[in-house]
Amino acid sequence: MRRARPGAPPRGTGGRALTSVGAGVGFDGSRSMDRRDDRTTGPEPTVAKEERTPSRLWHITLSVSGVAIPLKEVRRGLEQLAHDHPFLLTSRYANDHAEIRYWEEARDLHDAAAVALRLWGEHRSTAGLPPWEIVGLEVIDRETYHQRVAEGYGPPPAAPVGVHPY
User: What pLDDT is stored for residue 157 in this prediction?
Assistant: First the structure.
């Protein structure tokens, strides 16, 4: 004899889906005397709808700095990062700091910032980036970016796409 909840699938079966079910008769706290009625009547289970927030574009400026490294190594690491991730717009660098600008598509500012904060650390070894720390992060939405540029007080105009010294 198998002991389980009525209607529960056998143990070890996969593919279980979460569903919403109606409250049924007597939801106000009273219980039906005949429990068979609760199982056989009432609304059909429905699959819970997943709410999707549309993604937006965010302009990211990531600043890093640390101990001085030869310029050739800094440039090579940033060029490799740009090659591995063509979404990078521009990088500016010196021997002890760099700035990376790019557009990120994300649901909200928190998601965009989280991705940006992981970028340098996750690609430090694969791109051969210097062991610098993130010292600044700016995340602004597309409308704010274009408003700043139009009013002349936005970020300095980006150098042509690519990796450039300061």
Answer: 58
The model carries a pTM of 0.64
Q: How far apart are the C-alpha atoms of 26 and 38, rounded to whole Å?
A: 9
Are 77 and 130 in contact by the 8 Å Cβ rule? The answer is yes
Residue 39 burial (CB < 10 Å; 0-12/13-18/19+)? exposed
- Residue 87 scores a pLDDT above 60: yes
Residue 104's SS3 state is: strand
Task: Work out whether strand 56-65 and strand 97-106 pair parallel, antiparallel, or are unpaired.
Answer: antiparallel
Pairing of strands 88-93, 56-65: unpaired
Beta strand spans in 14-68 (E): 19-20, 46-47, 56-65
Residue 33 in contact with residue 9, Cβ under 8 Å?
Answer: no
pLDDT above 90 covers a percentage of the chain that reads 45
Token pair, residue 133, equals 């720390």
Q: Are the C-beta atoms of 91 and 98 separated by less than 8 Å?
A: yes
Q: In whole numbers, what is the pLDDT of the chain averaged over residues?
A: 77
Phi, psi dihedrals of residue 113, rounded to the nearest 5°: -65, -40
